Backbone:
């Protein structure tokens, strides 16, 4: 056995391959994204690809009361730090234009987008990749940096709460800022309720009956938006289900509202054990 | 090219290369949400840049390059949770990885290497790529890959030696590499 063969023996499992969910994603990508001929025109990364059309209207609507009560200067805290601008978000509910105006006043050419996200992503600010970026490292990695929370919020990623942009940065940055969703507002990002940073992370709710689950959600200020019964192509969304059904999972699709997965049969113990292991509970 | 043609081409490329790309990502992530997000973003980028994607097996190498960049951005917190991959996320959460091998000294030595060294050695050992293929994934010359690979193998042999691992198990070449490093 040589060194390369030894490394080969360390290879983690390649995973389940082309699953039904992967096939479903193929259709979703082609449905939600413009055909490549449109994208090839030099348009920037479409941050809101998965967002319903109404979201843009919604973003404008929530911004109006914020403008009435929040001095624009309070939206961002922009300071000079050596060769960088250090930008921290002070008002998550300010109008997107307020951010842009403040940035432009400093000569920072940035597209700032604000999106309703799940609790674990609120307050994050993320520089997005740029469409014509070639394979390889993030091309502005030396010019745009994030200011992270001191603690890691999950294993894989840091949790940026601000951004540093080099004063000599000459490109256009496209930044997404996560804000708290209003109750019932459609989220851009759908996240499992049991994932890290979400309300039901490490809460033992699997196989609870529906009324018990409602109570658990209520304790956390959440309500049920709808139920999903069945799996895969046979699944359907319904407004109500019998109280006898078991909760098998759920995800946030609207502010403060959960889409709950339910089934007639409880989840096997090994599935629950596996999920707890994967979610580090 | 009509609207149907890019869809057909993308569907063919996706079906042909999904397993390889998802394996690449799966082996380098530790959480089903991250795996699903990186796969989704890789193929979404591929769809947007379909015109840039080469044909045949070169498409797989091109996709590895995109996945590598997406993964790097993801690790820096510079990418997004996507709504596209909800079902995939659930499948991966329920997927039961076969028991991993006890890594022992070899795994420990591998873990001590830099990210760049590990990636090079993994592209050889896990994706089974040759020098010219790795050069395409990384966007550098074959000569550069050969030199960096040699150094990475040497450093792994040195780490094994430092752990008092019996290098004879890894062949004469490993002993020689470790001696070069000494």
Residues:
């Amino acid at each position: 056995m040589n060194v390369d063969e030894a490394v080969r023996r360390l290879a983690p499992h390649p995973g389940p391959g082309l699953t039904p969910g992967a096939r479903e994603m193929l259709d979703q990508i082609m449905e939600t994204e413009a055909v490549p001929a449109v994208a090839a025109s030099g348009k920037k990364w479409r941050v809101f690809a998965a967002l319903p059309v109404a979201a843009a209207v919604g973003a404008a609507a929530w911004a109006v009361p914020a403008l009435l009560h929040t001095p624009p200067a309070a939206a961002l805290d922009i300071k000079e730090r050596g060769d960088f601008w250090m930008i921290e978000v002070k008002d998550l509910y300010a109008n997107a234009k307020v951010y842009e105006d403040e940035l432009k006043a400093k000569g920072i050419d940035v597209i700032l987008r604000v999106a309703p996200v799940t609790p674990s992503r609120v307050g994050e600010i993320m520089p997005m990749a740029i469409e014509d970026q070639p394979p390889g490292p993030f091309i502005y990695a030396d010019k745009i940096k994030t200011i992270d929370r001191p603690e890691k919020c999950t294993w894989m990623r840091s949790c940026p709460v601000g951004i540093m942009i080099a004063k000599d940065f000459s490109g256009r940055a496209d930044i997404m800022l996560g804000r708290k969703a209003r109750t019932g507002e459609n989220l851009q990002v759908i996240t499992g309720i049991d994932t890290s940073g979400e309300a039901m992370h490490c809460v033992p709710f699997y196989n609870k009956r529906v009324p018990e689950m409602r109570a658990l959600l209520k304790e956390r200020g959440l309500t049920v938006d709808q139920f999903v019964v069945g799996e895969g192509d046979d699944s359907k969304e319904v407004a109500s289900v019998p109280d006898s059904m078991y909760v098998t999972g759920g995800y946030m699709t609207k502010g403060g509202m959960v889409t709950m997965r339910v089934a007639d049969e409880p989840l096997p113990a090994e599935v629950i054990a596996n999920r707890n292991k994967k979610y580090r509970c | 090219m009509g609207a149907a043609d890019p869809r057909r081409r993308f569907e063919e490329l996706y079906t042909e290369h999904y397993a390889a790309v998802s394996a690449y990502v799966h082996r380098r992530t530790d959480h089903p949400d991250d795996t699903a997000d990186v796969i989704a973003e890789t193929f979404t980028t591929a769809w947007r840049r379909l015109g840039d994607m080469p044909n045949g097996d070169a498409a797989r190498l091109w996709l590895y390059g995109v996945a590598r960049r997406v993964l790097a951005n993801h690790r820096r917190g510079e990418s997004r949770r996507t709504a596209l991959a909800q079902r995939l996320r659930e499948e991966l959460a329920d997927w039961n990885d076969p028991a991993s091998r006890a890594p022992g000294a070899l795994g420990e030595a591998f873990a001590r290497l830099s990210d760049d060294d590990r990636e090079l050695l993994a592209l050889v050992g896990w994706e089974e790529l040759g020098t010219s293929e790795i050069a395409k994934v990384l966007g550098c010359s074959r000569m550069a890959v050969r030199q960096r690979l040699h150094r990475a193998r040497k450093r792994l042999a040195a780490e094994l030696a430092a752990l008092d691992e019996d290098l004879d198990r890894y062949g004469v070449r490993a002993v020689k590499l470790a001696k070069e490093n000494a």
Remarks:
- The radius of gyration of chain A is 22 Å.
- Chain A touches chain B through 81 residues (CB under 8 Å).
- Residues 193 and 199 of chain A are 6 Å apart (CA to CA).
- Chain A has seven helices and twelve strands.
